[in-house]
Amino acid sequence: MSQILTSSQVVAHMANGQEMSVPIYQIKGSANGPKVYIQANMHGAEVQGNAVIYQLLEQLKQLDCYGDITLVPLANPIGTNQKSGEFTLGRFDPITGTNWNRGYHFNPSLPAEFAAQYPDLEQGEIVARFRQLIISDLDARLSNPYGLNTAQHLCANLQRMAFEADIVLDLHTGPISSRHLYCPEYAKERAVLFDIPHTMFIPSDFDGALDEAAFCPWWQLQLAYQAQGREIDVAIDAFTLELGSQEWLCLEEAKKDCHSVLSYLSHQKVIEPGLFSPSKMTRYACYLNDYRALYAPKSGLVEYLVPFGEEVKAGQPLARILRMDRYGHDDAVELVYAPADCIPILHFASASVNQGTELYKVFTNYFTL
Ligand SMILES: [Zn+2]
Predict the structure, then answer these.
(1) pLDDT of 42-92, one tens digit each?
(2) C-alpha 315 – ligand 1 centre gap (Å)
(3) 117-144 confidence digits (pLDDT tens)
(4) What confidence tens digit (pLDDT) does each residue in 175-221 have?
């Protein structure tokens, strides 16, 4: 049995003086197991991760947790409340237009400087000291005399909690989407621990997302030591889990994703090893460069024709575009074809598109794990 401690943290201050905060649920580990940070709903419409955190809390309170676990649902209170008509917006900061999941911080000079300063430190000391370094760097950012924008403030507050952890899981969804996983290349063997049939392997580049902000310092530290002729482990695992579609909540489906996360945590000895194990399924993967967007070649109304997760051959139709202003002409209904053999992973959330709208995202050059 584990006790769940409840608290909250202010992450934003609004114009009327009101403070916006996130709820925090914490379990203190009974042993010295890996520390875990799990957050959900950074994008306002992507609510399913909250249901997964609910199911995780239901399970974890009955288990012996070896490591500290911090769970933060509703991670973006501004985005969650950003409604227009029937829909939640909440993907972009309305002031700057920036994607909320691009405001995290990475200081690219720290890994090489640290490796040069401490060439012979043993791994345990490296982890302790480098963690302190990146945390104080983040604290310095928070007290930057020039200030931070709203998204950077929110992200830095969340990242401050994530930096304490050895394992970071960021729960998202696609627009209309199948389950898929963003997995750093160094953690390839662990992609099969999740019950997620599609995995993208991502490089060590930083583009502002939480998973990258969590693993980039440590991965680049490994590369910096490698350049000095020394092999060290990447101390942190960080993944983004895409758990289906936005504007969709299902507590039953969340049980499956809860099991999936517990299989991974069990393997990583956060909870008893062997207590949960991954389901048998065919798992497909591709490298990030082969995860391709297909943009609408023309504008109109869209009928999406193919189910997610199934292999589509080059030349097979993916969508039909209807132009009612062209009724009676040959181009009133036109098909959009797959440019290569691919697996559709997600499509645009709306049934009407401009020319150039991202229609589908697909795996190409994929392989099985
Ligand atoms: Zn998202």
Answers:
(1) 999 999 999 999 999 999 999 999 999 999 999 999 999 999 888 999 999
(2) 30
(3) 999 999 999 999 999 999 999 999 999 9
(4) 999 999 999 999 999 999 999 999 999 999 999 999 999 999 999 99
Is the torsion defined by CA of 224, 288, 50, 353 positive or negative? positive
Please give the residue range of the domain that contains residue 306.
290-368
In a shared domain, residues 276 and 347: no
* 266 shares its domain with 310: no
Distance 42 CA to ligand 1 centre (A): 6
Contact 197, 309 (CB under 8 A): yes
Q: Of 253, 281, 309, which closes a domain? A: 281
- Note whether 325 and 274 are same-domain residues: no
Contacts of 72 (CB under 8 A, 6+ apart): 22, 23, 24, 25, 37, 38, 39, 40, 53, 158, 161
φ/ψ of 154, rounded to 5, equals -55, -50
Q: Are residues 227 and 307 in the same domain?
A: no
User: Quick check: 248 pLDDT over 90?
Assistant: yes
Distance 272 CA to ligand 1 centre (A): 30
> Cα–chain-centroid distance for residue 309?
19
CATH of the domain at 336: 2.40.50.100
